[in-house]
Write a structure and sequence with these properties.
The chain contains 19 helices and 30 strands. The protein is of the alpha/beta class and 639 residues long. The N terminus and C terminus are likely disordered.
Length: 639
Amino acid sequence: MSTLPLDGWLTEPPVQPDANGPEDVPFEPFDARWMQATPIERFDYMAERYADRIAVDDGVTRLTYAQVARKARALAQRIDAEAPPGPLVGVFRYTALVPIVMMAALATGRTLIPVDALHPQDRQQAILRNAGAAALLLQTGVEIDTVLPDLPRLDIDLNALDDGEWPVGTLNMQGVAGIIYTSGSTGNPKGLAWGLAGFTPYIGTRTNTLHLNPDDRIIALGSLSSAGLGDAVFALMNGATLRIVEIMQAGVGELLRIMGEEKVTILSFVPTILRSILQMDEAPAAFRHLRILELYGDATLANDVAFFRTKLPADCHIRLVLGTMESGEIFSWFVPKDWNEAAMTLPCGYVTPGRSVAVLDDEGRPTPVGEIGNVVIRSRQMALGAWQDGRLTPGPFLTAPDDPESRVYTPGDQVRIRHDGLAEFIGRVDRQVKVRGMRADLGEIEAALRQHPDVADVAVVAVAHPDDTEIVAYITVHRPDTPPSASDLRATVVAETAEHMAPSRIFALDAIPRLPNYKPDLVRLSQQAQRDLDRGVIPTRPASQDLEPEVVSAVEQAWAATLRDRAEPGLSWESSGGDSLEELQLIHRIEVALGYELNVPIEGDFTVIDLARAVGDAITAGAKPLSPDDRVAFQDLEI
């Protein structure tokens, strides 16, 4: 792989990382001594110092630091004795077992590949095929239909783990600690390899920025295979309490209860979903103990931050972060409470410590201050490379010409560096299209539509035609009975961007489909846009209101009865954990409720509305009505 000679690096932010943030909160700084230590050394220090404090709480199991340490040592000893050398795939629910597995894998020098047991089976199978694992760690009670039946398997019962000793030997700090699978731009899981060398410095930077300390209660809402793991690491390395919540299972009401009753102090989330949560009457009381709110994403709306401040404690600090799964944080900052610049979006921050950033033009030359350019990152604290078929490959990374331990990565973001050192996010190269020969940024269109008071959520995709590109917007609205008009929505976009960026089609949905990391599922929406283009400019109601209420009601009730406590508004069938047998039960219940023998051609994943539309189409096409005798027989049928 060739290297890329670059100059013009931005390396140090002009302010301290905690500026305008928790500067007065006491904590134990992560000094040079700890920057050179291993994660196990840091954890042992915390486990001894705060032995009786709660380390992790998943709502069912609460473990102290001493208990986590004992169980992690016991598991490490078992892995060393029973698992063949090589990477370990772990399939778990996000419970108190997860940090124990993490520490045990680190101690044995094994590469850990975590898989969320709540993710769809096809995603789990794709990861298993790609991982090249030597053994499978499986949480007791979790079932998996593995595509690798001969893979050695260790069933792990949290309650059976007692005590042991850390394996003897020195950790290979240049080794691969873990593999995180993202959804990838095509929807297929994409593995990223993270090493030990940059692990502790990254923890140190975050500790010193947020002033993490043992009084913190960090709530982990992210997927087991993404942000949630970071929350676990940052908590355990600082004596804090990790509060795990599987929000898709628990629901927003339970989240608010936990936030308030258990005095959560730090939350990292995405603005689009948080906006809806903070509109609930219970939100201010629930968030009353929060001292830091971190917002991840691209462009953050100034209106959102202003609204959030009305619901949060006066002393809560809001931190914006722009980053990628490949690089971690790139730009970040605490937004000053008196910030009042008149702009639709806020700057995304200063260069995060531990990274060097160059902003280059299309010829690879540094851009002057105030001009738009492409972001290039250099750091030792990024992913080591891609993980493909069980081996480390360079992937999208280059080697820094003057430091073989640093990687260089181009994330596809465009920014403008201001004279005060703050970066303004402009957009993503892969979300820029040409409409009538002019540039259109899909992220800018989304930001503009969010400015409309009737729009609750939005995602925008582009559909290519032989002669041009068509922009299609999907929205959810606050008041489905009185949705905004297409002309009003387009006028909002034109006022904030340009005329050619106004969507040609706008569709209202009950919920924007999302990936496990809460980002919009743009692959799925692009596929849906192809199907929707012959359906009129804008439905006057969300998609569910185009259908017969009896059909929608029958599908909703059958869905809830089949999935039971896994049913969650807005989630697709696979995201809810529905399998093929349950799909038969689902269709059966709908047939009984509506009185028709149904042949429903559903392929792949689907939502309640997808299924309701397919059922309605089947009935319209002449589905056979069930006779009274047939209906009784169907009711008695066990599937």
